[in-house]
Amino acid sequence: MDGDPQTAGVVFERDVSFILGGKVHDVIRRQRAQRTPSRIEVPGLQCLVVGSGGREHAITWRLLLDRAVGAVDVAPGNGGTSLIARNLDNLSIAEAHRIAQHAIKNQIDLAVIGPDDAIAAGVADEVRRSGVPTVGPSREAGKLEWSKSFAKEVMEQAGVPTAPWWTFDDMDQFAEFARDAQRPLVVKADGLAAGKGVVVARDRDEALAAGRAALEERKFGDAGKRIVVEECLVGDELSLHALVDGDVVVALPTSRDYKRVGDGDTGANTGGMGAYSPSSRIDDAGAQPLVDRLIAPVARELVRRGTPYRGILYAGVLLAEDGPYVLEYNARFGDPEAQVVLPRIAGDFSALLLALAHGRLGAYLVEHPLELSKDHAVDVVVAASGYPAKPTTGERIDGLFDLPSGTLVFHAGTRRVNDSFITAGGRVVHVVGRGATLADARAAAYRAVEGIRFPSAFHRSDIATPRAVHAS
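RE: above sequence
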């Protein structure tokens, strides 16, 4: 049998009492009993989530809040998902055929593809071809993320504002260009680089070093054999997520993440050290007009090209003085953005995703408009020293079961060993606080962070502070 049979059929109360600190069993039972019956016609949905990070833990948790969901398999999963779902730790995220075979054998009703590597490997294509309703774009549509030059070309065709850009695969040509540049440059690996392939160069020397690392030193392997170079824009960043079903594009809650490893947005780029939702610049009510301007035209362009997009599309947006610009597209939920967006989606999440997977999103939302909570959420990442370069691993994590009531904890780089959890990656856990205001949510998150203990633990101290919220 795939995965660990001891984790199959874990009850809902155990799942939530683990992720939420405190004694919440009775509250959860009451909340679940008070929910209206699911609108999905097939009870006991069997779901499959592909991935192993905090994003996939959050997706799994959110699916299990729905009464219609019977069980979730996670391929391969992590220490946290092992408590609420069945981990398929003998599958890797890029094994498209084996994942599809598991979906068929286990009669999966809904598959959700989490990470960018799985999209680029064609996992959504293979699972969808097997007849399983799937949330995740085809490999060709997902090229919006795994080729930045392709995304730029599509943006130009669709009329979406983006920074002026150039591509290079030769270091000498790039060096000549950089020496003559009149504005600061951003140097990006064209392919997937785990969120670490972007350098905002402060001067020509930094730009040249970034180009050399990608093109000559092959720091990112084939992902960096071509670089995309942009003029550096100045403004506030925004993470803009949408459900995309062909030319039907629906905004999700806004958010903002923090990519630099150190306080004050200093140090190396990471996959993300924290996030909050909604954005302080564009609230949830303002999301749809921005989606109509920045995401919908690209969705229509992909339909025109014969490669319609079906899944989550997330635009990294810069809000400049002269208007918004798209910096990049991501063909999935952001990580850590998912950890603050998903808790704010109310209603039947599984029904929403199933409608998207079946190509009926527009019709579904006519009958069941998207429901969002009014609260705020803040995610603080607890990471291991050495991240993002070479994180320390193999350390026991303490304090996971003694957190304040109402706190959400999503695992990322963890491994379960019997009843203990061991660090197994750079970003170890995501601690999410919620509150009526951003300040309340931030305070809740940081109270809980203080309880997470392992020798090499560190975190940013300025996630969602007024200074960081308004920083460019």
